[in-house]
Amino acid sequence: MAKKNKRNSSHKRTIDPKSNGRGPRSLPRACAPTSARTYTLVDYRLEKPRFTVRQVRVEEGIRYEVEGDLSRPVPPIRDSQYLDPKQSIEIYRWMLLNRKMETALENLYKQGKVVGGVYFGWGQEACSCASAYALKPEEWLGPMIRNQGSLLVRGFSARDVMMQYMAKAGSPTRGRDASSHFGDIQERNVVAPISTLGDLIPVLAGVALGARLQGRKIAVMTYIGDGGQSTGVTYEGLNFAAVQRLGLVLFVENNLWGYSTPADLQFLVKDLAERAIAYGIPGVIVDGTDACQVYDAAHEACERARRGEGPTLIEAKMMRMKGHAIHDAADYVPKSLVEYWRKRDPIARFEAYLLKKKWLTARQNQDLIAGVDRELEADREFAVNSPMPEPESAAGGLYCNDGCHTIRPKYGIPKVTATKSSALSEASGTVHLK
């Protein structure tokens, strides 16, 4: 019989699994359970918005309207249980660099220097940067196309990202891709983004499994949006990670719009974190514009992964403040909703928090911003002046010759002890998944 969890804090919400998160539902007496199972979702938020987006027909076609109170004041930043002042300032700097880099990319696109499109993470910098900051260097990250801030945290430079979008010869893919599909499995432990939504989840689960077969329990982290969270491969990959108790930390970035479809027309559950219940894993809700909340949830999920206790699903609620890509003006988003989230800009909130805590003085903040600007300008100039790839180089890197892609164990081969019943060698030893 499942033990009932008590509502022991204002940050936890108990859910009857048969209520769909929307209140109790009576059952016929014949099938009434002897005791109702309850589940607790940890909710770090200091603000719980209550509004819905609905579709209405007008003469010119379809329009979206918001129902609910959008006049509520901006909540404070929640104090972190784990971050010290230095770490907080480092995360703030990564967020600034993330935003300024994307602004530079937008300008480069308008100047005709970008090949293809650009995908923005405006409004999601706290989620990208603070989450990746919780990983150890030897652990693994699988970013999505909007998590460019996490790439910066993991050691890529702004010039790497800008050269990638401009298809320059010095880009991480040597000009063979004009988007954010790049990684580094040798030094930075970054798996390249996969455009097919959800596919990174089983890949990162496999990375965690591979580490365990080599005798290591590590945390691995990846992301999915509110739209992509409904794909079949998301369910399959997360279920596999849950059953095998793999150290997967999955951030569901509920940015309210799956391209042009509002979240309220995508799913019926109140919170996407509720879906964790079906896998038997913890579900956590955070304000995705609050770097402290994001980091604390990520830190606790990573610690749980390192103990071998399995995956965690973290829903980060925020809004994507740009369209799906640079070609999308997002005119379908109600202006009142845009203004509501603009007031909750993650960078402005974190800046005010650090100044109020006196962890940064106004002068130190000005110097920090100026330093980011100098770094970014140098990287932009480097990227713009870098050469395009030579035409003949297109024929290279197509086939694996002379063992160029030999995959070696990252953490080493676990020792296998011979017993009376079996004399297994280190090379032939069978390692079960569980």
Model description:
The strands form three sheets. A seven-stranded mixed sheet has the order 1-2-10-11-7-6-5, with helices on both faces. The chain has a two-stranded antiparallel ribbon with strand order 3-4. The chain is globular. It has helices at residues 85-110, 125-133, 148-153, 158-165, 200-213, 232-243, 291-306, 335-342, 346-356, 362-385; strands at 12-15, 39-43, 51-58, 61-68, 140-142, 220-225, 248-254, 257-258, 261-262, 283-287, 312-317. The longest helix has 26 residues, at 85-110. The protein has a single domain (38-389), classed as 3-Layer(aba) Sandwich (Rossmann fold), CATH 3.40.50. The protein contains ten helices and eleven strands. The model is unreliable at 1-10, 16-31 and 422-432 (pLDDT under 50). Helix content is 31%, strand content 13%. Helix 1 packs across helix 2 and helix 1 (85-110) crosses helix 10. The protein is an alpha/beta fold and 434 residues long.
